[in-house]
Design a protein that fits this description.
This protein is α+β, with helices and mostly antiparallel strands. It contains four helices and 14 strands. The protein has one domain. Helices cover about 15% and strands about 40% of the residues. It has an eight-stranded antiparallel sheet. The protein has a two-stranded antiparallel sheet with strand order 2-3.
């Protein structure tokens, strides 16, 4: 009887985990790692070619940018590497649903992976306080608060030995931008040139 109870409990946990998975469309279904550690992405053609006519959608009473139209904010290329649209859709945090997209700039073992999400307001972005109260240290990484123009707040987390890291930004009090960088050490000091390539002026 005790064994049956334990098995039933484990099944309930598995069912609960399945029900909490993000509901994304056009999500990457497979990826492989190279010997250099850089992930090679397999892209969903529906995301690449499907363009939504509507720029915004209503989600839980909030007017959000349509998932696929979030790609309008991405530059068509970075360092002469073309954008590959990998996924877009809707998902949720503990504070509500939001729209999200992921794009990749990848060539010769180097990678810039970008995720842009529309939270509508900082009130619905669960990590906003982290951007304000940046920890003083992070073992193995250097944390730097970024000097950016009005409407932008963010930081960089950088590993000095192997020259990789990420930039986390909140833009115009609604968009979260996460930029993972592998193989482009010059972007550590030239982060402004990278950040301002993403155009949020005409949302």
């Amino acid at each position: 009887m005790k064994k049956l109870t334990i098995i039933t409990f484990l099944l309930l946990i598995l069912i609960s985990c399945e029900s909490n998975k993000p509901e994304e469309v056009g999500i990457i279904k497979d990826s492989t790692s190279t010997s250099s550690g850089v992930t090679e992405f397999k892209f969903n053609e529906d995301v690449v070619h499907k363009i939504s006519k509507e720029k915004t959608i209503k989600v839980e009473g909030k007017e959000l940018v349509t998932p696929n139209r979030l790609f309008d904010f991405y530059p068509s290329s970075i360092k002469n590497i073309k954008l590959e649209k990998s996924s877009s859709g809707q998902t949720r945090s503990g504070l509500g649903r939001y729209t999200t997209s992921t794009g990749v700039y990848e060539a010769k073992g180097k990678l810039i992976k970008v995720r842009i999400a529309d939270y509508y307001s900082k009130e619905f972005f669960p990590d906003y306080q982290l951007l304000i109260d940046l920890p003083s240290e992070d073992p193995g990484f250097k944390l730097t608060r970024l000097d950016l123009k009005d409407g932008y707040i963010g930081f960089m987390r950088w590993e000095e030995t192997y020259k990789y890291g990420y930039i986390s930004l909140f833009v115009q009090n609604r968009f979260h931008v996460l930029i993972d960088i592998e193989g482009f050490p010059d972007l550590k000091d030239n982060y402004k040139d990278l950040v301002y390539k993403f155009n949020f002026e005409n949302k």
